[in-house]
Amino acid sequence: MQAKLNVIAIATLMAAGSVYAQDMVVKIGHVGPTSGAIAHLGKDNENGARMAIDELNAKGVMIGGKKAKFELLAEDDAGDPKQGTAAAQKLVDSKVNGVVGHLNSGTSIPASKVYSDAGIPQISPSATNPKFTRQGYKTTFRVVADDVHLGGTLGRYAVDQLKGKVIAVIDDRTAYGQGVADEFEKGVKGKGGAIAKREFTNDKATDFTAILTNIKAVKPDVVFFGGMDAVAGPMIRQMKQLGINAKFMGGDGICSSELPKLAAGAMADGQVVCAEAGGVEGEQKAGMEKFRTDFKKKFNADVQVYAPYVYDATNVLVAAMVKAGSADPAKYLPALAATSGYKGVTGTISFDEKGDVKNGALTLYTYKGGNRDQIAVVR
């Protein structure tokens, strides 16, 4: 009898073992600044990844005949390049299967070498500096348009639509801020416009009196800022205090739900024009609206900027694993590079030979009554 019970016990354990053998753990890394001045943007990104992971686990995704259990390994880089490479190395050491991030170009670019050396695919949901995908790495991808498109479009818009005659430019000297400001300047000049004044600050600054006083002297009708919303908000406040009544422009770094709060009531309706690197039109709008509603319900927070792009990037990584029948980076990387026509909440995603999203859209916004108001989607 005892022997029979032992046989049953062993058989039960073997059956249980075979069930567990069917499960595979897939680790997805995410890195963003979840501390510091733009922690609200970093948390927004992390929540986008969390939402995708939770949904994938609920679906019971199969990879190569095994049920995948997805785990999110979230790291904070505080928007700092050195901390970014340390976070990247930590994820590599944890043997992640793929990475979504980082948020900033200044952290994504140095981290991309760490991932490339380890052969781990990385998709940034928000790094727009052109250099990111032009280093020759096969593991580097992004799901948003780059600064050439973003900055250039805003520069042309400043001249054509805002009729800017006296245009001033400020940047925060980061890879993103300086890069997008340079492309904005090229866009202005390409339309026959000129830059009357170019100043710079840094991404931790709070007092802009000196540079804004210099800018006030040229009587600008448009001021462009290359940087993030945490700096843009106080800058808009100080422009008002100094009596600078110019239009204020910026890229996706300032184009957040939080900007009106950061400007503390100093923004006039229609004063700010910004662009988000991405955009949906027509039937696709319903999918984006559903995402925003679901996100609010899940996290009790509005989407800031990039959460939908993180969500799509996470799903694109997994779709490539499913297609390749493997979560091994070396095996699914070719399928990821060949991604074409993936329908996400941010639009249709296909990668070119550099890892850039093909035919990337931009959405131009202004703010009215403290809320973002869409102007147009441009490609």
UniProtKB/TrEMBL annotation:
The entry's keywords = Amino-acid transport, Signal, Transport
A Pfam family the protein falls into = Peripla_BP_6
| Biological source species | Ideonella aquatica
Q: Which GO terms describe its biological process?
A: amino acid transport
What family, per the record? Answer: Belongs to the leucine-binding protein family.
Q: What is the lineage of its organism?
A: Bacteria, Pseudomonadati, Pseudomonadota, Betaproteobacteria, Burkholderiales
Q: Which residues form the Leucine-binding protein domain?
A: 26-370
So which residues are the signal peptide here? 1-21
Q: Which InterPro entries match?
A: Leu-bd, Leu_Ile_Val-bd, Peripla_BP_I
Q: What is the name listed in the Swiss-Prot or TrEMBL entry for this protein?
A: Branched-chain amino acid ABC transporter substrate-binding protein
